[in-house]
Amino acid sequence: MKIALIDDDVAVLESLSQFLTAAGLDSAPFSSAEAFLANGLDKDIGCVVSDVRLPNMTGIELHREIARRSPGLPVILITGQGDIAMAVAAVQAGAFDFIEKPFTDDRIITSVRNAIAAGARNRADADLRAEFTGRIAELSPRQKQVMDLLVVGLSNKEIALRLGLSTRTVENYRAWVMERMRTRNLAELVRLATWLEGREIEFHGTAR
Q1: What pLDDT band is residue 125 in, cutting at 50, 70 and 90?
Q2: How far is 84 from 97, CA to CA, in rounded Å?
């Protein structure tokens, strides 16, 4: 994966690129936020390292635009002393890290490696979310009703009473839901539904 480096100071760009290369990391330099965005947020970009103070679009504004276009792409902001409050606010808004000038090679390399790893996890989560959301879209309206009631804890009998169905019919719908969602048991289905809702339960299933 490439690291996008954004700074209007050519000397800084060259220096950053050189020590990232020495650390075995591939970089792509850009002299402005606009030039980077014109590149189309290449899928090979693993993270973005941007100075806060840029001509026209600032690093803070760039982070907002990246968050809108590609929310899983980590952004590291390089800040001068007068930019720290802005950088802290950006991190609170979702930026991955901010690094104060002057910084050591180890400080930025460690942050970049961590950002690349976080970005990979974000992409994997997004792929899984899209896959599972697609499976839900393939359920019939009644199957979706049964699934929703299962994951909030209702028994087959309670669901049957709620929907005016026989318990046997609910059992059949439950089996179809498990098969189409590729979950092995109710606990896995609940974890999956909870994860899709963005709640704080990690999904450990193998429903693929």
Answers
A1: confident
A2: 11
Strand order from edge to edge, sheet including 2-6: 26-30, 2-6, 45-51, 75-79, 97-100
pLDDT of residue 206: 37
CA torsion through residues 61, 64, 65, 66, sign: positive
pLDDT above 70: percentage of residues in the chain: 95
Closest CA to 48 of 15, 16, 10: 16
Q: Which residues contact 110 (CB under 8 A, 6 or more apart)?
A: none
**Interval 40-82: pLDDT, tens:** 777 789 999 999 989 899 999 999 999 999 888 999 999 877 7
Read off the pTM: 0.71
Q: Which residues pair with 146 in a beta bridge?
A: none
Helix (H) or strand (E) holding 27: strand 26-30
d(CA 163, CA 35): 56
Does 208 map to a domain?
no
- Structural tokens at position 106: 């180890």
Does 160 share its domain with 113?
Answer: no
Q: Cα separations (Å) of 9 from 46, 92, 118, 149, 196? A: 22, 27, 28, 58, 43
Same-domain pairing of 17 and 81: yes
Range of the domain at 187: 138-196
What Cα–Cα distance (Å) separates residue 18 from each residue in 28, 56, 59, 192? 11, 26, 22, 44
